[in-house]
Write a structure and sequence with these properties.
By secondary structure, the chain is mainly β. It is 14% helix and 44% strand. It contains two helices and nine strands.
C-alpha cells in the first residue's frame, strides 16, 4: 500500500473512533391537572446529561409555583412560550438550583411553558442518578 493511502486510512479511522456515540436523552412529559385541581405532583429520575421537560399551558398574569424535592443534584429552569432549553443565555424565565428548591412567579405570556429538570455538569459527568419529585401549580 502506498504511504499516502495508509495516511488517509489512518485519518479516516481516527475520525470514526471519535464520533459521538449517542445524544443526551430528553424526556417530554405533558402535564394535565385533574378536573378541579390547580397542581400536579410527579416523581421521576434521570442520569448523566439526560433531562426531563414538563410542559403545561397557562395564561399571562397567572402565577406558577414550582417545588422540587429529592436529590440535591436536581435543578430546574422555567421557560416561557417561545423560549426553550439551549436558547440564548438568559432565555429562562426562572432558574432553580439545589439551594433554591422552589420558585413562584407571575407568568408573562399565554401559551405552553416548559419546566426543565436537569443536573449540573459536575455530577452529570459522573453519570449520577437523580431521583426527584416535582410539584407544578398554576393559579
Amino acid at each position: 500500500m502506498k504511504p499516502v493511502h495508509t495516511l488517509a486510512l489512518s485519518i479516516a479511522f481516527a475520525f470514526a473512533a471519535t464520533s459521538p456515540v449517542a445524544a443526551d436523552k430528553v424526556t417530554t412529559v405533558p402535564v394535565k391537572f385533574a378536573k378541579g385541581a390547580s397542581s400536579a405532583t410527579m416523581k421521576g429520575s434521570f442520569a448523566g446529561y439526560d433531562s426531563v421537560h414538563y410542559t403545561l399551558d397557562a395564561r399571562a398574569c397567572q402565577t406558577m409555583t414550582v417545588t422540587l424535592a429529592g436529590s440535591s443534584n436536581a435543578n430546574f429552569n422555567v421557560f416561557a412560550p417561545g423560549d426553550a432549553p439551549g436558547d440564548a443565555p438568559g432565555a429562562a424565565t426562572a432558574l432553580g438550583s439545589n439551594a433554591d428548591r422552589g420558585w413562584t412567579g407571575k407568568l408573562p405570556k399565554t401559551g405552553t411553558y416548559t419546566v426543565q429538570v436537569y443536573q449540573m455538569r459536575a455530577s452529570a459527568r459522573r453519570g449520577e442518578k437523580v431521583p426527584y419529585t416535582i410539584t407544578l401549580s398554576i393559579r
